[in-house]
Specification:
Length: 311
């Protein structure tokens, strides 16, 4: 009995365990203009220009005055005092226009803009944005474990290079273009057409004046265009352009090539005996046209027919 009493006295002296501190959590619930499965993609130039809304939700918020936001590059830890102190600062305090008061709340929804949490005029890169439960803004006070969360965000405002080596093939029922992708990790490739001719002599540039025809996977290297679908008659010329789109949604400049709808049925008679300029193969961006295997075979056939027709 005395041993039991002594044990109880010893436990009382040590003290009962205190309450376990809850870990503050947070997540990005939505980004304006994005699907739910695209929240981890980099922020693009268009999203910066539009200053899109970013909605966050914080749970198990400790009893402090407000959420204090800081940004560091890479994996910089902005929860440390040294990272926020004026003389040793490696993080940047952020100004949030929305009310960030959390006093008395345990769950806080908050909507900010991308321009408030990322420097859209700065360099591309990876950033870590911290939300600290603090007594005020731009705090330099110690932040205990469990009273902050962070979000890893990427800014990619620079778009990919335009597709290279673009070539086009004339045809009657199908027009074909081929190219080499500018990057290995592309979201998609976009095909544009200009049915009213070949603008700017097939030079690279923007998509103004062009019509989006098709969207292909990021690893595509060729595409076909139905001349009937764009109202092309035999003898009409059109421009076909290709752009690359990266994971952030930035679109490259347009690479273009000129193609012509030709009649392949009765080709020899239509081409008047296949003169030297009836090339089918085309190259874009200032390259010189060259004969394709298709034209060479037709030319040989034309020559044979002419010999057979001689008296």
């Amino acid at each position: 009995m005395k041993a039991t009493a002594s044990l109880l006295l010893a436990l009382a002296a040590v003290g009962a365990p205190g309450p376990v501190r809850a870990q503050m959590t947070g997540n990005i619930e939505s980004i304006e203009g994005r699907a739910a499965d695209a929240l981890t993609l980099p922020f693009s130039a268009a999203e910066c220009d539009g200053n899109v809304a970013v909605t966050m939700r914080f749970r198990m918020v400790p009893d402090r005055n407000q959420l204090d936001f800081w940004r560091g590059t890479g994996t910089t830890d902005c929860s440390t005092e040294a990272a926020r102190a004026p003389d040793t600062r490696t993080c940047t305090p952020l100004t949030i226009g929305t009310d960030t008061t959390i006093s008395g709340a345990t769950e806080v929804p908050l909507t900010v803009t991308v321009g408030e949490i990322l420097d859209c005029t700065g360099s591309d890169g990876d950033f870590r944005v911290y939300a600290l439960a603090a007594s005020g803004a731009a705090t330099t006070e110690p932040i205990p474990d469990g009273e902050f969360v962070y979000f890893d965000l990427t800014l990619k405002r620079t778009g990919p290079s335009a597709p290279s080596g673009l070539t086009g093939e004339d045809g009657e029922n199908v027009l074909t273009v081929r190219w080499t992708s500018s990057e290995s990790d592309l979201r998609e490739q976009r095909i544009y057409v200009s049915a009213g001719g070949c603008p700017a002599g097939g030079s690279d540039g923007g998509t103004a004046g062009w019509t989006l025809y098709d969207t292909l996977s990021g690893d595509a290297s060729s595409a076909t265009v139905d001349p009937d679908s764009i109202g092309l008659m035999v003898g009409d010329e059109a421009g076909i352009g290709v752009t690359s789109v990266d994971q952030a949604g930035n679109e490259s400049a347009l690479s273009t090539v000129c193609v012509t709808r030709i009649e392949t049925t009765g080709f020899c008679e239509h081409r008047g005996g296949c003169p030297n300029d009836c090339s089918v193969g085309r190259v874009g961006a200032g390259g010189a046209p060259g004969p394709s295997a298709f034209v060479l075979v037709l030319a040989a056939g034309c020559a044979i027919l002419r010999r057979r027709r001689r008296p």
